[in-house]
Amino acid sequence: MRASLSRRQFLTISAGSGLAGLVEGRSPVLAQGLTPLNAGMSFTNLDAASAWVAKDKGLFERYGLNVTIINIQGGAKTVAAMAGGDVPVAFIAAADIINARSKGLPLQMVGGLINKFPYDFVVAKNISSPAQLRGGKGAISGFGGSSDFATRYALATLGVDPSGVTLLQTGDETSRLAALQTGQIQFTVLTAGLDLVAFDMGYKPFLRLYTLDQPYQHTGIAINTAWAKAHPGVVDAFMKAIVSASAYIKNPLNIAAALALIHTHLPIDENHLKVAFQLYRDRFYSVYPMVTGPGIEFILRARKMDQPATDFYDNGYVQALQSVHFAETAGKT
How far apart are CA 91 and CA 222, in angstroms? Predict the structure, then answer.
């Protein structure tokens, strides 16, 4: 757990003078000037919607922060930047944080953006039964990553032993789709909604992983705990902006505006974006982005790690905001 304000202290402040500042759209930190903060981002997809909204709508500034979002290709590079203190906060896959923390790095999840497998399992056009996948080849972005977990889970769900197939590390979704087109592989996973390009080519989802009940901590927000111990107010302000952005996204009145904003960061086909965004709003996004304990446990079990799931995350920041109905207050400002 974080070594900062106790929850009782936080709630006392939020319910008193701090809450008055929030109602007026201000924060106690703001009166002292904006605090600069670099935040890393290891992906560019709809998982990042709350970050883009918080930045472009001035929500970080509302709570006293001058945030620079730094796009970093890949979880390993993002972990290195976090460990070195270059980006003490990051939008990143939980699997990367678990791997880093298990090796002794002071990193921890404090928010859960996507708490299910956000994938469709897509197969070659000549595949009509799971049995045809045995002995075949599939594509993932990298071993130990979310696409790896998702692919193995999909195979097991379909009754196919993952050890009986060959998984190739081909990179991002564009590369995996290209490998499927050229016949190098027979199956892969593509992000739900954003795989509509594949469907336009005639491919069909063999299994929609997000419709299953399996909790999985896909992506979220992580911190360098050593830095956070010295900057608890900055972390709280950052999470206030994210919760405010999440509430904005979930408000049906903001759909058109949110889509226009997101499209500037994710310039895919406009119709594809509309479908994908609706799916994410309905199935994935939450106003209070909590880390899912069972989702962390799933990763730990898959990796045969004995550490308790609570070592890898702290929902205290988001829970404190939820306990004072922060989103409802922020939505009125």
Answer: 6
